[in-house]
Amino acid sequence: MTEGPTATAATTPGSENGSALLHMRGITKRFPGVLALGGVDLDVRRGEVHCLLGQNGAGKSTLIKVLSASYQPDEGEIVWDGESVRLTTPVAAMKRGISTIYQELDLVPGLTVAENVFLGHEVSAGGFTRRGEAADRSRKLLTRLGHGEIDPGRLVGDLSPAGQQIVSMARALSHDTRLLVLDEPTAALDQEEVRNLFRVIRDLSAEGVAIIYISHRLEEIREIGDRITVLKDGRTVATGLPARETPTADLIRLMTGRSIEYVFPPRPERPRDTGTPVLEVRGLAGAGRFRDVDLTVHAGEIVGLAGLVGSGRSEILETLYGARRASAGTVTVDGRKLRRGSVRAAVAAGIGLCPEERKSQGLLLDQAVYRNVTVSSLSRFAKGGFLDSGAERRRAGELTESLDVRPEGVDRAVRTLSGGNQQKVVLARWLLRECRVLLLDEPTRGVDVGARTEIYNLVRRLADDGVAVLVVSSEVEEVLGLSDRVLVISDGTVVHEGPATDIDESGVLDLVMEGDVA
Amino acid sequence: MSDTPTTSAPAADTARVEREARRDDRPGRLALLRSSTGHNLGLIVALGLLCVVGVITAGDRFADIDNAMTILRLAAVIGVVSIGMTFVITGGGIDLSVGAIVALSSVWCTTIATQTMANDNHWLVMVGAAVLVGGGCGLVNGLLIAYGGVVPFIATLAMLASARGLAEIISERRTQIVSVPAFSDAFAKEPLGIPIIVWIFILVSAIGWVLLNRTTFGRRTLAVGGNPEAARLAGIDVKRHTVLLYVLVGVCCGIAAIMLVSRTTTGSSTHGLLYELDAIAAVVIGGTLLSGGRGTIIGTVLGVLIFTTLSNVFALNNLSVSAQSVVKGLIIVVAVLLQQRLARRSDVT
Fold it and tell me: Where is the stretch described as Disordered (chain B) (predicted)?
């Protein structure tokens, strides 16, 4: 059906003469309450390394899931090798030669390298696996990737992350891959392993395999990429930019410049850092994820943590909430030190968390709104263990009304609400507990544009009522717009601290992408 | 979706979200069937049909007050176990050891030592022994699962083996006959013409309903079973709660053991065989989610009654136990398929 990748060989990386392999036009994908992709265009040529750039939530992951047919697009056309195709299942995409290697490698640790490489299309005869041949063919693929030293008989679970990645790529190549999608492939690799990976990528593109390369690291893109497509808010804002020549400033402007301006509530003019802080964190460290984090939040203040995914932002929040165990450091609320690693101690001290994964960590989706609101304050509605659900409904009703949760009705299942309204339900939970410190992890993830401003206003209103708020977001603009003070996190340490008005989005991106102070 | 793809202004998005949310409001044709009331109604209809079949095939032998009491007495023991099982399953767990705990409790409360103490003091000694043994087994299960990190299936499987083994050791595999007259007298009473053990079943069901639907304990059970991570982050002590759930089912097993001892006037290591399967089946066709987070006591009671009535109808018609098992299996499969079908449709809208 498809010609082998070698048939289109001899295109050198970086050259413009690669012929068109893939055109995605006007790809649109909606999820309930969110427009994830609003008409994305992408074209990829044979043998090129095409970089996909964009902030978190720009739609990169959704786009590659559409390409690998994990998602079906609502609208748009995919032209593959000159022919308009509908990719209905991941297997169909694979058969056309599209392979995706996700950040979370999808290998079976308990099987051998060879078994993983041919998982789902085992080398067999009459129903019996042919282990010898599978091993031979795996060895050939691994050698082609420059890693002939990996024994096909080894268990994948025993390999390093870099080795596992090579096995993933071998698996992709076992399918006659013509387009390989790599999602943040270097996230778990050290420098030497990154160099190896790049060599493999160059070899593949020299053989005519096209690569879609997703990374936050600009220096990598400069080194390995040919052309760049920039996504922002689910749209293509630039395509076909030369990877080496395009100035960093232009790329950052493209990634951050917005078609929709969020409206942030005004900051109150008041002297900062007065009095004793409500929340005080000293020398907090979490094994391998972050270290030496000092931060303070005063009553009425919003402090933001900015940083990339994997920088340790969310881990810091979860650790000071007691949901992860700290390896060092202290957390103090209103002068009282918290017991380490105890959520109950944190909640008792007046800390509330709106977690990053609202649906899996925050909500009881199938339960009524009022039950989600009262779950942290049940004792308040109980006499001798018996719940006064009338009082629960009334109180939850008042709170959800004051937060303008729509549609109204405290008996409806939380699942039926939109992302923004679900977030308000979580906020109502902590309002009810009258918490002193509110931790917000990605407060507007999955919240559509219109509802964001509402959430921002709500958070500011809480702060004005004297709550100390700590916000984490991968959207730099959100952190800067919402906070009074910002801490920039990179590789698990605080690299910058200062008033939010003293730094702009590109300044933050410089800090986290280039790794040094601008 | 008739929206043009180009609109993504905040106002349009908000309007769309609201519209979608409102759509969930609309009472669908299946809304009643999906609700727990509808599910219970379905079970009542099934039970009614079963009774009609009973009347047609066995006539007066089925439609007889004594026969009704027989059904209820049989349902009572497994019913109490199933109430406990409802809590564990709603809380996201499973207990395979209920039958073995019933056996161990029944043996422990009928040893010569216990019976002598009961004769010397009060027959309630036997009740206390059974409940303590049951609760103790539950405590061990709960601690292993919550703090030892053993998955419920394995922890309770181990308890299944050891508790019955222990029962055999204690009883030396002999049937222990009850010779505590006060005990037998107490359980022979029939207030309002209804046997004591049926009253116990009614009482345990009522307490179970209140506990699940009206108390903080019940609410936390739903939270822990529905989303343990969210429950933990909301400040609920998930581990302690899990232990309590297994203690609760253990206590239910202890109560069931006493009922069984009074009904059979014996304690035996062979009591309660396969109760775990009967209880899980009743809970599941009752409408409790096996994955946790949703539970119904009324559904469980109806589930128990359906299975017991089925056995009765089969027995009255001189049909084999084997045929009964086949039908039981079919009922479980059909009930679960139906539930899943309905659940999926409610997801789509």
Answer: 1-23
What is the dihedral sign for C-alpha B116, B121, B123, B126? negative
The reply to whether CATH 1.10.3720.10 applies to domain A20-97+176-256 is no
Top residue of B1, B3, B6, B14 to mutate, by most chain A CBs within 10 Å, is B14
Q: What is the ipTM of this complex?
A: 0.72
% of chain A surpassing 70 pLDDT: 91
Identify which of B18, B217, B230 has the shortest CB distance to residue A364. Answer: B230
Strand order across the A279-286 sheet? A290-297, A279-286, A328-333, A336-337
Report which of B282, B298, B295, B293 is spatially closest to residue B336, judged by C-alpha positions. Answer: B282
- DSSP for A413-455? BGGGS-HHHHHHHHHHHHHHTT-SEEEEESTTTT--HHHHHHH
Of all residues in chain B, what percent carry a pLDDT higher than 70?
Answer: 87
Domain with CATH 3.40.50.300 in chain A: 20-97+176-256, 279-350+435-514
Q: To probe the interface with B, which of A404, A416, A441, A453 has the most B CB atoms within 10 Å?
A: A416
CB proximity under 8 Å: B 215-274 to A: 215-220, 222-223, 226-227, 229-237
**How many pairs of residues across A and B have Cβ atoms under 8 Å apart?**
123
All domains of chain B, ordered by start, with CATH? 43-348 (1.10.3470)
Instruction: Output the six-digit token pair for A6.
Output: 């070698």
Using alpha carbons, select from A449, A509, A516, A446 the residue that is nearest to residue A479.
A509
A279-350+435-514 to CATH, choices 3.40.50.300, 2.170.150.70, 3.40.50.12780, 1.10.3330.10: 3.40.50.300
Q: Is the pLDDT of residue B112 over 60?
A: yes
Per DSSP, the three-state class of B40 is helix
Put simply, the answer to whether B234 touches A28 (Cβ < 8 Å) is no
Chain A residues close to B230, C-beta within 8 Å = 355, 360-364
Interchain contact, A367 vs B24, CB within 8 Å:
no
> What confidence score (pLDDT) does residue A290 get?
87
Q: How far, CA to CA in Å, does A249 sit from each of A345, A421, A459, A510?
A: 46, 36, 32, 9
How many Å lie between the alpha carbon of A296 and the closest alpha carbon of chain B? 22
